[in-house]
Amino acid sequence: MVEISKEQVKHVAHLARLALTDEEVESMTKHLGDIIHYAELLNELETTDVAPTAHVLDLKNVMRKDEPRKWIERDDALKNGPDVKDGQFRVPSILE
């Protein structure tokens, strides 16, 4: 079993720019050790017949395929705009 040391906790805290007290280092050493122990227990499971997955749920893409199609002409689209000039929609200025 892999044990985590106080020096490793201090090093990771330094990399994460965390200022830990000695009591917090003690606590984190224990908590991180428990996490590593749990991860090692998962390594003992039999997974030879389990297919790898990217997600635990069987999700499907519900979006339509992105296929090219005929669109309306620019002049027809500009007819819907309240203020049009030089082939473009005019909008109020947002900068002063």
Could you walk me through the main structural features you see in this protein, from its secondary elements to its overall organization?
With 96 residues, the chain is mainly α. The protein has a domain of 38 residues: Orthogonal Bundle (Histone, subunit A). A hairpin with a 2-residue loop joins strand 1 and strand 2. 1% of the residues are buried.
Outline:
This protein has 96 residues and is mainly α. Helices cover 39% and strands 4% of the residues.
List the helices and strands and how they pair.
Blueprint lengths: L5 H10 L6 H22 L30 H5 L5 E2 L2 E2 L7
Antiparallel strand pairs: 1-2
CATH class of the domain at 6-43: Mainly Alpha
Query: Between the first and last Cα atoms, what is the distance in angstroms?
Result: 65 Å
CATH superfamily of the domain at 6-43: Glu-tRNAGln amidotransferase C subunit, N-terminal domain
Q: Could you give a short account of the major beta sheet?
A: 2 strands, antiparallel
Radius of gyration: 30 Å
Helix amount: 25-40%
